[in-house]
Amino acid sequence: MPGRVIPKPDATAERTIRWSRVVSYVLVVLAAVVFSLRPELFGDPEGQPAHALLHVGRIVLGVLLAVAALGVQVVVGVRWRAGLRRRAHDDAEVGSGDGSEPAGNRAPGDR
User: Fold this and answer.
1) What is the pLDDT confidence band of residue 63, given thresholds at 50, 70 and 90?
2) d(CA 54, CA 66)
3) Residue 90 vs residues 9, 94, 103: alpha-carbon distances, Å
């Protein structure tokens, strides 16, 4: 039994998906750079009382950047799927005049 078939994205959706991937990669690279900052870059721990806060801030910023990269992918995916549903709903209204059977994957007749 074949699974659901999701159509390929149109040109506009492909551009949006490509843009979201670029943004996500940039955010992940920034997170990696923030995580890779060495403690020596922040100065001497004894001479700088806020040294520990800088370490915590570095970790928090890195996590936020990584979560933002994931969030971009989730938002673009949800919007694309919503667009597919909207188009399927519009096609169902136009395609079947009586509206008795919804468009999409229909069950085989022998079940």
Assistant:
1) very high
2) 18
3) 17, 6, 10
Q: What is the Cα–Cα distance from 106 to 98, expressed in whole angstroms?
A: 17
* More confident position, 69 or 42: 69
pLDDT band at 32 (very low <50, low <70, confident <90, very high): very high
**C-alpha closest to that of 16 among 75, 90, 84:** 75
d(Cα 61, Cα 55) in Å, to the nearest integer? 10
Whether the CB-CB separation of 92 and 102 falls below 8 Å is answered with: yes
Looking at residue 97, the DSSP 8-state letter turns out to be S
